[in-house]
Write a structure and sequence with these properties.
27% strand, 3 helices, alpha+beta, 6-stranded antiparallel beta sheet
């Protein structure tokens, strides 16, 4: 059986895009949550190229009130990732191939990476969030 993630692999990253053929990281998370899991979560209205805006949004944006933080991810949970101290990137945890993150990365587009591959690329798991029921 083919996993739904395969149809997204390789789609391009475009800052501010939240459409059918290109995404930024949060636009991609929102799209997949809606299309594959039936969850309609709010947009985060920021400039993804402005690190200060990104950091601020992850702390206080109303979109994140749609989620509960969890300690162990399940399929479809949002993953916040960091490259230094603070989270600056989002993806979705998938319970396939031992678990990993489906995310849309600047310069690479949509990829699926296990934890080892994420770490090798400088991404570190920061926290996990599940859509409130």
């Amino acid at each position: 059986m083919t996993h739904f993630a395969n149809k997204y692999i390789g789609l391009p990253y475009v800052a501010g895009a939240q459409g059918l053929d290109s995404f930024d990281c949060w636009g991609f998370v929102r799209y997949v949550l809606l299309q594959e899991y039936g969850h309609n979560v709010p947009p985060v209205n920021i400039n993804p190229d402005n690190l200060r805006d990104v950091l601020h949004a992850f702390r206080v944006d109303l979109a994140f009130q749609a989620f509960d933080e969890v300690s162990i991810p399940q399929d479809g949970d949002v993953v916040l990732m960091r490259q230094a101290k603070n989270p600056v990137h989002a993806g979705l945890w998938l319970d396939i191939d031992g678990g990993g993150v489906l995310h849309c990365v600047r310069g690479a587009g949509v990829v699926f990476q296990n934890i080892h591959s994420l770490n090798a690329c400088g991404w570190y798991l920061h926290s996990f969030y599940r859509v409130k029921k």
